[in-house]
Amino acid sequence: MFKGLIAALLALTLAGPAAAQCFADYKAKKDNPLQLHYGVAQVSDSNCSARAATAELQPRLAADGWTLLNVLSTFGPGGLDERKANAGAWFLRY
Questions:
Q1: Positive/negative CA dihedral, 13, 18, 19, 20
Q2: What is the pTM of this model?
Q3: Residue 5: its pLDDT value, please?
Q4: Contact indicator for 19, 33 with CB cutoff of 8 Å
Q5: Where does the UniProt annotation place the signal sequence (predicted)?
Q6: Residue 46: what pLDDT?
């Protein structure tokens, strides 16, 4: 029984970080000339919300001259595959 408990705790510990990953999909723009992009970025998992993702992504994008238009959604690793093709070069870039 003790071995089973240790195995269960170990499984939960190892699964924790993977389950806690947070990602956001967003839209951004640059002016002169106007450029738009849709992207996917990993954000902090401590508060996986659109508000927290916005605060985190704005300075990352601004460092390269992009303005964050909006965060569309936040999601876990299970949503990555369906967004990868649409994000193209902007997939996990920021």
A1: positive
A2: 0.76
A3: 40
A4: no
A5: 1-20
A6: 87
3-state secondary structure at position 71: strand
CA distance 40 to 55: 15
Instruction: Quote the CA–CA distance of 62 and 55 in Å, as a whole number.
Output: 12
Q: Please state the φ and ψ torsions of residue 81, each to the nearest 5 degrees.
A: -55, -40
Q: Average pLDDT for consecutive 10-residue bins of the chain (94 residues)?
A: 44 48 98 97 93 97 98 97 97 97
3-state DSSP assignment of residue 42: strand
Task: Determine contact, residues 69/25, Cβ cutoff 8 Å.
Answer: no
Strands of the sheet with 22-30, listed across from one edge: 35-43, 22-30, 67-75
Amino acid at 5: L
Q: Which helix (H) or strand (E) holds 39?
A: strand 35-43
CB within 8 Å of 63: residues ≥ 6 apart = none
